[in-house]
Amino acid sequence: MTVTEAHADARTQPTARTCPFDPPPEYRVLRENDPVAEVTCPDGVHELPVTW
């Protein structure tokens, strides 16, 4: 896998919140299915948040 391929699979963050006190539901899905997943921030930066 090349860097370009990895970035093509990145999810866009942040996602919309349904409650101001809870993280977005997509974070639960990431935590359960892909605890280290590449995401793209609004400024175009790619990062790897770790969820547990």
Notes on the structure:
The protein is α+β, with helices and mostly antiparallel strands. It has one domain (3-47). It contains two helices and three strands; from the N terminus they run H-E-H-E-E. It has helices at residues 3-8, 25-33, and strands at residues 11-12, 39-40, 46-47. It has a three-stranded mixed sheet, with no helix packed on it. Strand 2 and strand 3 form a beta hairpin. The model has no long low-confidence stretch (mean pLDDT 75). Residues 1-27 are annotated as: Disordered. Residues 1-10 have a biased composition (Basic and acidic residues).
Number of domains: 1
Structural class: alpha+beta
Secondary structure: helix percent: 25-40%
State the strand order across the main sheet.
Answer: 1-2-3
Mean pLDDT comes to 75
What is the approximate shape?
A: globular
- Give unreliable regions as ranges: none
**Alpha carbon gyration radius:** 12 Å
Element order, helices and strands? HEHEE
Number of helices: 2
What's the total number of strands? 3
Relative strand content: 5-15%
